[in-house]
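Researcher: I'm preparing a figure for a lab meeting and need a structural model of a single chain. I don't have an experimental structure, so a prediction will have to do for now. The sequence is pasted below. Please return the structure as tokens so I can convert it later.
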Amino acid sequence: MTIIKPFKGIVYNPEKINADDVMSPPYDIISDDLREMLYHKSPYNIVRIDSGKNSADIDKYFLAKKYLMEWLKDGILVQEEEPCFYGYEIQYSYKNRKKTLRGIVGIVKIEEFGRGIYPHEQTYSKPKTDRLNLMKACMANTSIIFSIYRSKERVTSQILENLKNPYLQAIDLDGNLHRLFKIKDQSQINEIIKELENKPIFIADGHHRYEVALEFKKLMNEIYPEQKDPPWNYVLMFLSNIEDDGYIILPTHRLLSTSLPVKERLENQRDFFCLSELNTNEDIQDTIEKLGPKNIGVYLKDDKFYILKYKGPTLEYLPKELRCFDVSILEEVILKKMFPQRKICYDIDIEKGIKMVKENKYDAIFILRATKVEEIERVALAGLRMPPKSTYFYPKLLTGMVINSFKENF
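Model: Understood. Here is the structure written out token by token.
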């Protein structure tokens, strides 16, 4: 059963900062150059806490704790006196379409996967080590997990649509407007809790952070077994209603670097694939979306686009819910079997990927269709996971909009 609660959030004090200067994208999309730029934007940019740099003699986790404590002491960050929910809204554009993403921010009781909370992607171990070290140092959730749920009643959605007077707003690096509202009305708080209490939650963006929160909970409960329902039993989460259609799911394409001849190997697998050149007037992404499952776009060093149609056998060794995904075909049949010695890079930007192929940094870019939310629900409820980087939820939540401190929520 899903349990969501209001909490005493830690937020920036808008009287002391410019919100545009102190927010940061999620840690997992921050390059070294972007980190430097964020460091120079403001001495109070959240990147110093959530994704900082080591100094000459102090590690970044100690520094994160130091900044958090100092900023609270100096009033740069302020603590809510009473528990509340937060409404989080993003007004954004994508391919000339204007959209609005809305969701509720609260703390959700941590459960083992499959007990009301469901992942849909596999994860890597390295980012989890980093997130665990940060959580131990700060005793807080410094960034928000992006999750989705489905409710046709749209009770919480209607509350969010009618919020006025944002506490904080900021423009992200893509020019999108992020607004944070405080929800303190007890009747609205009760309605939100009631609507979400039995709803399955699907993690959209933040699998590593949730798994780390689960591990941290177990560690802390071993140290403090006498605590009843302690604050680390909960994790900071943004929840958006699938019925609102506020987000976009983008595909994450694969860039391949290999010593093997890509086109020749693809053409030689005629029992499994049909490789056909694409007309130069056609858009590769639109084409594969229209063609549907088992069609993967390819751009090669000959400066041509191709459609790679899979006609081979069903991947019987995979669970049936995963067999028809283009990303499964790409990972299992092409990348693992045809190019065993390879380097893979992930990117959502096709034009950027094409440029890297033209510059001989990679040998090919494989272009995928977008995953549908219904497919995510089906895989997750079956207790399965898609390959890493199967989805890219857009827009991204800003880090720094609100923090959940375990110390302050005892």
